[in-house]
Amino acid sequence: MSILIDPYEEAKKQLRSTIELLGLGEEAYEALAVPERLVQVKLAVRMDDGTVKTFIGWRSQHNSALGPYKGGIRYHPDVTANEVVALSMWMTWKCSLAGLPYGGGKGGVRVDPKKLSAGELERLSRAYFAAISDIVGEDLDIPAPDVYTNPQVMAWYLDEYSKIKRGFYFGVVTGKPVELGGLMARVYSTGLGTAITAAEAARRVLGGIEGRTVAVQGFGNVGYYAALFLEEMGARVVAVSDSKGGIFNPNGFHVQDVIDFKNKTGTVVGYPKAEKVISNEELLELKVDVLVPSAIENVITEKNARNIKAKVIAEGANGPTTVEAEKMLTEMGVVIVPDILANAGGVIMSHIEWVNNRMGGWVTEEEARKKLEERIMNSFNNVWKFWESKLDKQKHNLRAAAYAVAVDRVVRAMKLKGLL
Ligand code: GLU
Question: Quick check: pTM over 0.85?
Fold first, then answer.
């Protein structure tokens, strides 16, 4: 993430233009620009060498008009309070757009988890969840995985919470391991949703996804599965990358083979069937049909937007495109499937998991996957329809349509409650 671009400022700019588009007043902007609650916690963690280290974490609860706050927790050395607030606002729109009974929240801990041992990571995770235990809950705020957190971290959160509250509350976190009430489909659901929306946009813009070239930035939980599903749908994945760099092969990769290589070595760099090693910046500017940025915020900026050659961008990451860059890309005719639509598969599956936990029942993987596919296609169609029928496509991208639908629903709920 570039430290020069503040994601909260970006999020507020997006909100501002949506408020204008919907013809709402300044009071609506103010009611939505500020999170309902932002909590900072200090974590004292015993390290393996016996010393105690201090970490800082946050939980931002942006808006609860539609239901309990929902959103992941990220561990990253560059996390800031403003970033967490922006991400929590994006969760409000994401949940609203998907028609879920949730508001938006997000958490973060400023740490490089790659530098911690398993024991240190467990103690940090337990300390963080204990510190926020009074503001989370099955009907209050429901965390989930995000950048560099995973089902194991959710298992520690669940266990810590159970101890503190002296009871079993499966629904307090989602993205749990299957043994603890998680769903098999949750781990690939964000990537699947990204692939579905990327393919649908490619179908409408380019006539189909089969044989189209794709570059995927980021090979974490989102990028990894997005690449796998896009390949399954017939696309040619010609470039992938992780935090150490990227690889390119014009003939396309066998994605599972790259995954196996990364699992062994820790990175895609050095994969023997790559034609060349490329940087993360170079990946974005490749001559491909579809670009899937699935790492972090602010990677497509006014500096590189003009060099982008893809006709479709599907945002697997949250906030990868800045507002200025989006203006340029819209002028260039690039269709952007925005994050709140393209990566909603994760939170949609989280909702299925949460409902399943609260019913004490066991939905099958097939049922869960079908529900996800239906819901995300529904969202896509609604957004596309709004874009075509209500907006000037030369001026506005799909994001404007997605935001209009999402913000409108939150505003209506707030009005009904007398909050606006
Ligand atoms: N962290 C994911 C996101 O940004 C998932 C959130 C959730 O499942 O609550 O959408």
Answer: yes
